[in-house]
Structure formats: C-alpha cells, structure tokens
Amino acid sequence: AQKITQTQPGMFVQEKEAVTLDCTYDTSDPSYGLFWYKQPSSGEMIFLIYQGSYDQQNATEGRYSLNFQKARKSANLVISASQLGDSAMYFCAMREDLEYGNKLVFGAGTILRVKS
Amino acid sequence: DTEVTQTPKHLVMGMTNKKSLKCEQHMGHRAMYWYKQKAKKPPELMFVYSYEKLSINESVPSRFSPECPNSSLLNLHLHALQPEDSALYLCASSQGLGASTDTQYFGPGTRLTVL
Fold it and tell me: Which of A52, A18, A34, A53 is nearest to A91 (CA)?
C-alpha cells in the first residue's frame, strides 16, 4: 500500500518570502504520480502541480515548484513570493492504481499561514 | 475549463430525511469520484465511477447510495444518516486514462450537517 507523510502540521511564512512544504512517500510501484492540492477555508480542493516518477525535471507551475528527490522519496512543494491568498491547507497525494480504477492517497496536510 | 460543480453548497438534514447531492462536469472526463472529508482531516474515498459503472466502493454504509445517470453527472443519495456523517462531501472527476498522469479535479464540495 502507498503512504504519504507530511510532517509539518502548520507553517508560517512572511509575505513575499518563499516557503517549502515537506512530503515523503512510500511505494513499491516503479511508476507513480505525485500531486499537490490547495484547500482554502472555503473547502474546494485546487490542483496545483503534478510530478511523474519518470519525469527527468522537477515540475513547475507559476510560483509553485516541486523539489522531487526520488532516491529520498520526497516531493516537497516550494511556493515562491508568498501571497496572503496562499494561506490554506496543502495536501500532498499519490495516485494508487487499483484493479478497477484508481484513488488518491493523501497526506495529513499542512496548514500554511502567510503573515503581512 | 477545469470546472466541477456541486449542489447544494450546504445541506442540513434530519436522520429520517432523504436527500441527494449532485455533481456535474463538462470536461469529457470518464471517471468520477465521491470523497468524504471530516474537519482538519484529508479526504477519504467513498466511490469511483469509471465509464458510468461503479468500479470502487470503499465499504461505504448502504445509507449512502451513488448513481451515475450519464458521463457528466454523479449523484449521492442519502437516507437515514447519522450525526457522524456530517462532513464535507467532495466530488472529483478525471480523464480515467489509467495512466499515472491522470489528474483529479475537485468541485467546491457540499457541507452536510445531520441533526
């Protein structure tokens, strides 16, 4: 079974600074995908970024980048130039393939608070 | 357009009521999902529909009954719920390609309170 670990229950960052949210994973599958989602207090889960296990380069999407270290089984999210609107819960997730479909396995999440 | 819509946004129901949650997507996705999320916890998968057929049921109690009328719509019928069923219910959809790049896009959720 796959497992995602997020060890930071909460993080603070000053506006305009960068912040790294940690994620480690465990899987025996050679092919896998890792995802980061943002969940503001409104509740919607917003897809941020995806990293495939065979991707040669770290994924980037605007201010979001993924620091993928395959040997260490880590997929940390880096948010550059933090904004007040970045305050939210952030989930790291891995796609688990089952016999008749797939599901996302989520970490416990990290609450990020951006200070002005 | 990566939009998944859910109605209602909020729902309060008694333990004897029957209600339904609705989810719609117009992205041509062939897989749709229901998740349940308790406060300050990650979402937990309930059901997966793949090509309009129920493919995964994560041992969900029968008081939750999913339905997929067509490839764009997903319903969750609720009956005789318990107060512990109060949660945020999230719908998601994905292309259902079966590849690791398959990305799930979520709706805004329905906040359910069972009295």
Answer: A34
- The CA angle A105-B105-B23, to the nearest 5 degrees, is 110
Chain A: residue nearest B104 by CA?
A47
Of residues A43, A50, A91, nearest to B42 (C-beta): A91
- pLDDT tens digits along B11-37: 999 999 999 999 999 999 999 999 999
For B105, name the nearest residue in chain A, comparing CA atoms only: A47
What CA–CA distance (Å, rounded) separates B31 from B96? 5
Q: Which residues of A touch B32 (CB under 8 A)?
A: none
Query: Please, are residues A70 and A58 in contact by the beta-carbon 8 Å criterion?
Result: no
A96 interface with B at CB cutoff 8 Å: no
Pairing outcome for strands A110-115 and A10-14? parallel
pLDDT in tens, B30-40: 999 999 999 99
**How far is residue B107's CA from residue B97's CA, in Å, rounded to a whole number?**
20
